[in-house]
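User: Fold this one for me? It's MFS transporter.
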Amino acid sequence: MTVNKSLIANFALHESSAIVKMTTGAIKLKRIKDGNVWIATLLAFAMIPMSGFATDIYLPSLPGMAGALGITNSQTQLTLSLFLISYGVSQLFVGGLLDSYGRYKISLVSILVFCISCVIIANTKSIYVIYAMRILHGITIAAMVVSKRAFFVDLYSGEQLKNYLSIFTIIWSTGPIVAPFIGGFLEVNFGWSSNFYFLGGFGAILLLLELIFSGETIKHTTAFHPAKILAIYVEMVRTGSFTLGIGMLGLAYSMVMVYNMSGPFIIEHYFNLSPVITGYCSLLLGFAWMVGGFLGKGTINKPFIRKMNINVSFQLVAALALLLTFSLFNQLWTVLVFAFMVHVGAGFTYNNYFTFCLQKFPQNAGIAGGLTGGLCYVIVSMLSYTLIYLLPAKDGVNLSFSYIALILVSALVMYRVFVLNGKEPHHTA
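Assistant: Here's what I get for MFS transporter.
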């Protein structure tokens, strides 16, 4: 089944032009209407998983994309790393801009630019243009997601706010779970570029609904003082347990990203299976991350050091079992069973250390959240791409070695966090 790219591109550009005019007018709209708050809240939740969709939907298409563009596997995988870097770095700065210039205007422009860049990716044959657009994706999605986090703080408080914030991780997890499944279907039926048409179309729907139902939520803007913000960042980074805690987040999510970058090639090249199978496998391992998050939330009151020691031991056993069973049986099930266990442990680690990091600076929770998320994604991009470069995506043995390396480093960093946390003063509100 083929897609008339010229027809779709002309239609998309025509629609983009119309949306530009609507967006320009909407920027001048008044604040959000009370009667639309519940719809705008649903839209905010719908935007939270966008970062997961932007990375995971085209995972089943990585091998096909490399073949269609005539590039290497590592060049294709770099499109993921560049997105992660720009997404992470942008989160470090976008919070201050949102506080100074409002959430709504920046969010609308970001969605529009994201949609246009998706159309450009789907219609280019240049990997360098794709690189540039993926960097733009990271910047715009960071603005979209962070603005919607602020949306909840603007409109809700007390137990209602705590309830909404508590399900952020669960909502975010739907992206990595659902996106590869959709991407596998699109790859088989329409080719790799259809993933980006889908992302652009989804973004366009969100933009139109935002124009109709949403609005500005910030009550009072604050002057933008880079020097004051920088001083807070420096204080946080100099707190060793906080910085190493972010390192633990990066190591945990790198385990997932290493699979995301290597799994499609193992399944489609090594086992000669369909991209649809890649989608099913990614869906399963996305569910593993969610299970780890639920376990982390369920054991939140358990002794921290003990449960983290058990978790890292569990992960190491699973990674070693993957190495042994794949060497013996050379079957896909060995990858899925033990990678599932590793990813459950990674989700558990992430859930616990994200809470740990945010609690370190309760008086600057917004900046701490942006710094935590931003640095985490920068670490993930560097670690995952380095491991894939050193241990190319060819079979389960290399994947198991990548897991083992990340788990052993996690154990060392975790020990150092415990030591530093006991020596540092605790910041209170």
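One thing worth pointing out: Residues 8-219 form a domain with the Growth Hormone; Chain: A; fold (CATH 1.20.1250.20).
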